Amino acid sequence: MSENVTKAKSGSTPIIRKVKKNQHKPHGGSWKIAFADFVTAMMAFFLLMWLIASLNKAQKDGIAEYFKQPMKITFFGGKNVGNQQINLKGGGPNLKDTNGQVSTTDKASAQSKQAQDIQVIQSNQEETQKLEELKSQINLSIQKDPSLAGLKDQLLMEVVKNGLRIQLIDNQKKPMFDVGSDKLNPGMELLFAQIAKLLQGVPNKITIEGHTDAYPYHNPDELEYTNWELSTQRANAARRALVKAGLDPDRVIRVSGFSSTLLLNTKDPYSPENRRISIIVLKKGSENKVMDNKATGNKVLDNKVLDNKAIDNKATDNKIMK
């Protein structure tokens, strides 16, 4: 039995298995097209970012306005849309330039502006230096004069942005004016005369301002007369004192009154130091601004008081004796 099985096994047909390997299909070039589209899109994106970075604020506002209402802008136009050109700076040299040709209109304009700015700064520094010298001269002259030495505490001077501000402040023991009056006391006339003498040494134009404390003015015979009129007339009295002492009248380009709107001592609106006269020796730039806005100032000629158009006329209701 075992012998027959062996023969059967030995006589069987051999089976051969062949493994077939699946070969990949040949690749096409479609991926290259997709990649090229991607690169093109990225190039367009960065080009757009570069253009946006080259725009100024007005041009960006115009573009934003277009995308808000595109049809309206197309037919009717809009602000900052379609009326400007964008000049993009190139990255290479100008082929038309010859050797040694380096200056351009833009560069020359920038250099000219820079030179003007430097000149303005130098001029401002020179003016500030001269005003500091004038301040020192006034202080020294008052200290040397025995009749004025007692008034030095009533004199405040400071070089500010628009010039030298000379403030003569009131004192309870040595008032500049009598109560409710615009007449200078004799001692203060001497101080104004000394200041006028020193102001003759500089050519600067001058403005004069009058200030009061917060006590409202009261006079039964002059119900419409307020601290506005009083501060203005006191400023004009200071102008007359300076002119009387020899100051050129044409040097004074503005006389104004501010009532109690610009307090020196804000913690105590009723303090005597709030009653003061401010003389501003103007720098050239500030002088031009005052001259340009001359029509809006408050001009006073002698005792003829004009309306104060520079500041709202805020008359007080409860008037008590100042």
Automatic annotation (TrEMBL):
Keywords: Cell membrane, Cell projection, Cilium, Flagellum, Membrane, Transmembrane, Transmembrane helix. It is found in: Cell membrane. SUPFAM superfamilies: OmpA-like. Pfam families: MotB_plug (PF13677), OmpA (PF00691). One of its GO terms (cellular component) is plasma membrane. It is a single-pass membrane protein. Its main location: membrane. The chain crosses the membrane at residues 33-53. The keyword Cell membrane applies. Residues 164-285 form the OmpA-like domain. Belongs to the MotB family. NCBIfam families: PRK09041.1. This is Chemotaxis protein MotB.
